[in-house]
Structure formats: C-alpha cells, structure tokens
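Supplementary notes (optional reading)

For those who missed the lab, this is the record we used. Protein: Coenzyme F420-dependent NADP oxidoreductase. Length: 199 residues.
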Amino acid sequence: MSYAIVGFGITGKALAKAFARNGIEVSVATTREPESMAADAAAIGPQIIPKTLAEAVKADIIFLVVRYESHPDVAKALPNWHGKTIVDVTNAHGVFPEELRGQPSSRFVAQAFAGAKVVKGFNHLLAAVLDQDPAVHGGKRAIFLASDHEDAAAEIAALAERLGFAPITLGGLSEGGLLVQSFGISWGRLVFQDLVKFD
C-alpha cells in the first residue's frame, strides 16, 4: 500500500510527522516543484519523499490537505480516480451553505475525484494538536472518520491505528461527515474536539 499527502502546509507537515514517527514512507506534493519541499521534508525524516503532483497521485491512498477551494484543481491530475482512496482533510470554512446546497462538503470532493472512495477525516484537530504525539496519558488521541464506503473507512481506520491514533467511525458523509466539517462561518459539533480514548 502506498501513501501520499497532497498539500504541505502546517497540516500536511503535521500528518507527515505522524508517518515519520511510525517509520511509514509517504510521498508529499504540492503544485510546486519537489525541490521546494526538500529541506522541510528532510527535517521531518527520511520517510518523507517529495514528488511532483503527477507522481504523488499514483499512490493508493491520498490525503487531500489543500484549501477546499483548490480541490477541483488537484482532481484534474488524473482523468479517473478509480481504485484510489481519498482522505478529505479539507475544511470548507467560508463556503456558505447555499453553495453546498445542504450537502456535506465531502460530497463535492467525491464528485470531483470521480471513481475514488472518499473518507472524511483528520480535519477536526488543529494542526498544532495533530502535530503532537497521539499517545496521551496512556490513551490515544481520537480521529473521527466518515465515509459512504465502509471498506474505505475500515482501511483508513487501520492506517490511523498504525499512526498511533484511536479511530472513531461516525457513519456516512451525510451523518458523520456533517459533524466534522466547517461551512460558512460555522463548525461541525466535533470540530476542535480533542478527545482521548482509553482502552
């Protein structure tokens, strides 16, 4: 299984650190040349591999960590996303509900990435919190996931566990997805909730 993070701002870097902490190789890409990320990637660890966007989207699982407004541009990198799992880490803050027509923003991401299985996740925590070791006082920091594809949700839940988090699946995008998305000037009820799960 191969992994990529598209978007290498503070949230993308925080995710990259989670991969590096666990010795898992992941490609990172933006619309810029890989050389522009080389120093930051090297500072995180040798598992973080800068690539072009065209190279990165060859991965099986792709974390979409760009501004919500930029997702259609990333989607143009492939004519069809069949066989890929997209983890939607975007937040549609500032995009008003009428533009979303009452739908979760991840549905529009799913439409743009035609053929992919979309899982909403890893977006409810501030980057500064996501950046930290998810092991907290003997528990694990919770990551909320929502998807209309149970197999994809299970796949990302297993990856979240490998990264040290405690995944909590919330159901489909129309139910759980609305709990962890931003829209307009509002936030879903679980956004910013930094919860720790104990066994």
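If you only remember one thing from this example: The chain has one domain: 3-197.
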